[in-house]
Amino acid sequence: MTSIPADVGSRDGSRGAAGTTPAAPPARRRRRTLSSSQWAAVGFAAPLLVYLVLFYAYPLWRNIDLSVHDYTIRAFVQGDAEFVGLQNYVEVFGSSTFPTALWNTFVFTFGSIAFQFTIGLALAVFFRSSFRLSNTLRAMFLVPWLLPLIVSASTWAWMLNSENGIVNSVITAFGGEQINWLTSPDTALISVTIANIWLGIPFNLVILYSGLQNIPGEVYEAASLDGAGAWRQFWSITFPLLRPVSAITILLGLIYTLKVVDVIWVMTTGGPGDASTTLAIWSYREAFGTGQPDFSPAAAVGNLLIVIALVFGFLHLRLQNRQEATS
Amino acid sequence: MQHTRRKHTTLAASAALAVAGVSVLGACSSDDGSGSSDGASGDAAGGTYTWWDPYPQHDGSSDWEARVQACGEDAGVTIERTAYDTTALTNQALLSAQEGTSPDVILIDNPAVSTLADTGMLTTVEEFGLDTSAIDQNLLDAGVVDGSAYGIPIGANTLSLYYNADVLSDAGVDPASITDWDSLTAALEQVTGAGHKGITFAGIGTEEGSFQFLPWFWGAGADLTDLSSPEAVEALELWTTWLDEGYAPNTVINNSQNTVWEEFLTGDFAFAENGTWQVNSAAEAEFETGIVQLPGKDGGVAPAPTGGEFIVAPVQEDTARYDVTNQIVECMTTPEGFVETANTFAYYIPPTSEGQEALLEENPDLEPWVEAVQNAKGRTSDGLGTDYPLISEALWTAVQNALSGAATPAEALETAQSEAESATS
Fold first, then answer.
1. Do A273 and B8 touch (CB under 8 A)?
2. What ipTM was predicted for this assembly?
3. Across chain B, what does the average pLDDT equal?
4. Which ranges form a coiled coil (chain B) (predicted)?
5. pLDDT at B9 over 70
6. Gyration radius from chain B CA atoms
């Protein structure tokens, strides 16, 4: 992230150097003598800049542009969309879907993260002690990550099927009642969250496991000499020393989970009704899920998601800076 | 740091990829147009014409591809065919129109015709000098916006009620007795009483859900301009009663039409609501199948929505291309052409009475399907046009809410009506 402003700044710097600025700081004076290599640097950075503008800046600008115009289909083709300012946002906020989608996004994201992290951490600690087949087992836990999402989501949809699903057949075999996992408004969101937790565990496991490798074994030896049991070791050594890695894992997970569309779309298409509609699903449905694409509100919802993700991104940066400052 | 950045902008980046992909496609099709003037291939004077259709299941070596190419050869040109799936095709068509690189011919799902026509990207049939007088009015209507037709149906399909003859005879139900809702519900009771499963249909929260609900909705006498009418409530109550009584499985809420068919093929279900496109599969099923017309509430055949594609010609900058395009369209829409298309796909009913007669001569078994198509009704007709997709979204949401028990049928439809009103106003 820091590389971009530096490049832009240096380009300005070389321009300033060409003018008559006498009080140049030492660094800048050194640059003046290297102005040809300075240009070479700009040349080398150019592909990156072009890439960033094409694939990051333009789509972002386009998304904002879509959200402040009224792009009906006709306007989309003829390119004469009316400027409506923030009206799309007002409509999004006023829509009856908005509170549901926001709440669902909250439940889905935090529910997923809480369980993914806890289970991932438990497994990471479990696999820390090597035992026979531990590597094989650990590799098997990565399977959810390797499967194409459409495959795992469809499989979950089959397993949770009300009539023929394996989950219900187990429940009824033990005398329970059939649960309409995907078709009841009470359980649809829980079902997609469960599937998403399963998908996210490997990510947490891998990062936390590598974090554990950085904790020196002597610390544990010293602790056991002092008579600390496994539980005490976890809370007094593993957990505090793992905190930096945990923070990053959770924040990355948050940003990643916020924009999940595929799992939910394949399993419930956000239904029944709006029962499992998150902001990301809502945006997708407005744009591509109906017979009539509604790009403007879809872009408005998409921008909302970007803002939420940005907030967490900044939180991440702040935390990281603080950690760097303290270490 | 790099990670966060990547996460922020993944949405945007994927959008950019989509845009880039589209512009590449656009570039291809315009190259085709200009490349034709070079006459590099030398075999045809006319060059290459582009053709998009929603049949990715028919690849380059299929009968359908050969049929399309034959129409090109007749017109002295090569046709470059690209297949998308149905939803993607509408989006691609819109994007190409925005870029000014529309293909010469598109076969598009009928409810999308009015959407595309509304953008001004389609030529009218009249401008093209094509005669549509022979086409059945109920089928043509789906492509009519403000009195002008923007395309010609190349064939039609619709829904009907498939039954499993083995299950029905086991339960002692005579399919001929099913003439209205009451007799159907009575049959379902008898079938489930005999230990079988009743009926399966698609109530998924997409256009397919509305498509499957409409025969019951229209069969009750309801109208799409008033979703909360007592007739509409009756139709939705019919479905919820079936679920409550256990005549239909709870899974119908998430069923697509394909899933419905898979469930039916297990042999457990007595009835399945499905379309003309399953005729071949039904014939190959391990049990004997048949169809009855979808009954209206008080008897008669309920109007089912028409399915099937229209052939449309997008506006081109180079109007000289229209002559050849016209020949290609005509090749697809002659009576022989309709029958040939029907046979190639095995599930298309020709949209003209002449074509239907010719088809029935070859294949008398399709008689009930011809009847169903004659009774069918376009979703965008009744002057709904581009309002239909909005109303449909409200309708399928209501179906989902009522079937899942989130709301009563009356409440769900009340909400749907106010959603539809605010969306279309």
1. no
2. 0.76
3. 85
4. none
5. no
6. 23
Please name the residues between 218 and 257 in chain A that touch chain B, using a CB distance below 8 Å. Answer: 251-252, 255-256
Q: How many helices (H) and strands (E) does chain A have?
A: 19, 2
pLDDT (tens digit per residue) in B124-142: 988 888 888 888 888 888 8
Shortest Cα distance from B224 to chain A (angstroms)? Answer: 16
* pLDDT for A10 beyond 80: no
Residue B121 lies in a domain: yes
> Are both B240 and B287 inside the same structural domain?
yes
Residue A300: what pLDDT? 94
Tally of domains within chain B: 2
Nearest CA distance, B178 vs chain A (angstrom): 27
Q: Which of B335, B359, B375 is the last residue of a domain?
A: B375
How many helices (H) and strands (E) in chain B? 17, 11
Cβ within 8 Å, pair A275-B404: yes
Assigned domain for B100 exists: yes
For B389, the closest of A60, A259, A292 (CB atoms) is A292
Contact A212, A128 (CB under 8 A): yes
- The answer to whether B229 touches B223, Cβ cutoff 8 Å, is yes
Q: How far is A315 from chain B (nearest CA, A)?
A: 11
| B133 & B216 share domain | no
Closest partner CB to B87 (pick from A183, A275, A288): A288
Where does A92-326 sit in CATH, by number? 1.10.3720.10
Do B301 and B311 reside in the same domain of the chain? Answer: no
Subunit contact A255:B4, Cβ cutoff 8 A: yes
Contacts within 8 Å (CB) and 24+ apart, B248-252: B248/B198, B248/B199, B248/B200, B248/B201, B249/A162, B249/A163, B249/B197, B249/B200, B250/A162, B250/A163, B250/A178, B250/A180, B250/A183, B251/A161, B251/A162, B251/A163, B251/A164, B251/A183, B251/B200, B252/B200, B252/B201, B252/B202, B252/B203, B252/B403
Q: What CATH number did the domain enclosing B369 receive?
A: 3.40.190.10
Indicate the pLDDT class of residue A37, thresholds 50, 70 and 90. Answer: confident
Q: Which residues of A touch B407 (CB under 8 A)?
A: 273
Domain assignment present for B21: no
Q: Average of pLDDT values for B195-212?
A: 92
Looking at the structure, tell me whether residues B275 and B298 fall in a common domain: yes
In a domain, B17, yes or no: no
What is the side-by-side order of every strand in the sheet holding B78-83?
Answer: B78-83, B48-53, B105-109, B309-312, B152-153
Report the pLDDT value the prediction gives residue A290, as an integer from 0 to 100: 78
Residue A210 banded pLDDT, cuts 50, 70, 90: very high
B12 and A157 within 8 Å at the Cβ level: the answer is: no
Nearest CA in chain B to A61: B12
Instruction: Tell me if B119 and A255 make a contact (CB, 8 A cut-off).
Output: no
Contacts of B97 in chain A (CB under 8 A): 77
Averaged pLDDT, B401-407: 92
* Confidence class for position A291, pLDDT limits 50, 70, 90: confident
Given B375, B398, B416, the domain boundary residue is: B375
pTM: predicted TM-score of the whole model, two decimal places: 0.80
Q: Do B119 and A73 touch (CB under 8 A)?
A: yes
Same domain membership, residue B238 and residue B179: yes
Chain segment B153-201, per-residue pLDDT in tens: 988 889 999 999 999 999 999 999 999 999 999 999 999 999 999 999 9
pLDDT score at A98:
93
B209 has a pLDDT exceeding 80: yes
